[in-house]
Amino acid sequence: MTAVPCTLMRGGTSKGPFFLARDLPSSIDVRDRVLLAIMGSPDIRQIDGLGGADSLTSKVAIVGPSTRPDADVDYLFLQVVVNEPRVDASQNCGNMLAGVAPFAIENGLVPITGDRTRVRIHMVNTESIAVAEIQTPHGRVQYSGEASIDGVPGTAAPILLDFLDIAGTSCGALLPTGNAIDVIEGVAATLIDNGMPVVVMRAADLGKTGAESPVELEADKALKTRVEAIRLEAGRRMNLGDVTRKTVPKMCLISEPKKGGAIATRNFIPHTVHKAIGVFGAVSVATACMVPGSVAASIARVVHAASGDRGGRPGVAIGTSGILSSAPGAVSSRRLDVEHPTGFFTVEMDVESDNSGTPGGAGIKVQRAALLRTARKIMVGEAFVDDAVWNGK
Predict the structure, then answer these.
(1) SS3 of 58-76
(2) Between 119 and which of 7, 101, 189, 379 could a Cys-Cys bridge form, CB atoms 3.0 to 4.6 Å apart?
(3) pLDDT confidence of 362, banded at 50, 70, 90?
């Protein structure tokens, strides 16, 4: 057996092993076979590996020195499919991203710069940059703290993530078709990519209220068949090609907020229903709420970022009319609490009015999206794979 050093970490609401790039085979084919063996795929229980028998716990992060001068480290995210012998590199994962800076610091890739350390992360999947700020008092990474995120029990140290210029990183434009609304299979949809390709549809247009549980949606085979048909056509229109065997685009059913947030969501990722919502999925849905004329714009409730927060603190809710200043180049800061089945995901955005007519621009330009996550180091050790797999036999 060959031993492979790794660190098992929770990042946001996901979990998986983190590897240094130098500790994995350079051949992509051999690397993927090694990761399938380490995670225990294909097997719905992943009984023979580290995977948790769920897409949220069958994820891998590979971290190494940056190949770009404007970043500190490279981060490659890989989704290891649970029940297929397949490793997918077509998307980012903003939850696993939360563990990248702590892992990089503890493995000597980034020096600590004080009580707080900022790490510029090159997200290899989409060739974009994120900046993570973590707490590093007394010269070490601090994991304990008072920050909480929905979907994770307890509290931990906050990790602040800023995403810079991520619009269109997978599809070429914020709105790949140039339209605020496209009609696919008779359903109005907003096809958007602000860090994650997402198809946003009103739940009511698919015969749903938007309050159904993930279990209820999973049981509706007719719905899933219809959603998949829309996804396949949307993928083609979003410049993603044949997405039959891809994990993008994600599919999001939206409805009016039910718990004081900006919008309520139910998310297909893409063939199972998420118990929450992914980081970049939330950013793209929040962005759709800001796009004039989108399917989300008429029902979203947005607050000024500096005016307060949900949960009883002051805040001024506004509708979609007047969300942005009409003055060219004017920048507005907005906060959106995206509701999901297990809570909220808060996204803060700086959005600039853009009436330049740029294809796919939708009248806005997203300057910045920011959010809070937490992470926890669970275990440091070695994973074992058969020598024959490691040697590519």
Answers:
(1) CEEEEEEECCCCCCCEEEE
(2) 101
(3) low
The amino acid at 251:
M
**CB contact at 8 A, 94 and 12:** yes
CB atoms within 10 A of CB 322: 9
Pull the structure tokens for residue 281: 């999925």
Each residue's pLDDT tens digit, 277-303:
999 999 999 999 999 999 999 899 987
DSSP classification of residue 167: B
Q: What is the largest CA-CA distance in the chain?
A: 64
Contact indicator for 61, 76 with CB cutoff of 8 Å: yes
Q: Where are the domains of the chain?
A: 2-158+375-390, 182-365
Are 54 and 48 in contact, with CB atoms under 8 Å apart?
no
Cα distance between residue 373 and residue 156, in whole Å: 9
The stretches of 169-274 forming alpha helices (DSSP H) are 214-219, 221-237
Residues in a beta bridge with 193: 197
CATH of 182-365, one of 3.10.310.10, 3.30.300.30, 3.40.190.10, 3.10.50.40: 3.10.310.10
Do the domains 182-365 and 2-158+375-390 match in fold?
yes
The domain 2-158+375-390 is placed in CATH, from the list 3.40.50.720, 3.30.70.100, 3.40.190.10, 3.10.310.10, at 3.10.310.10
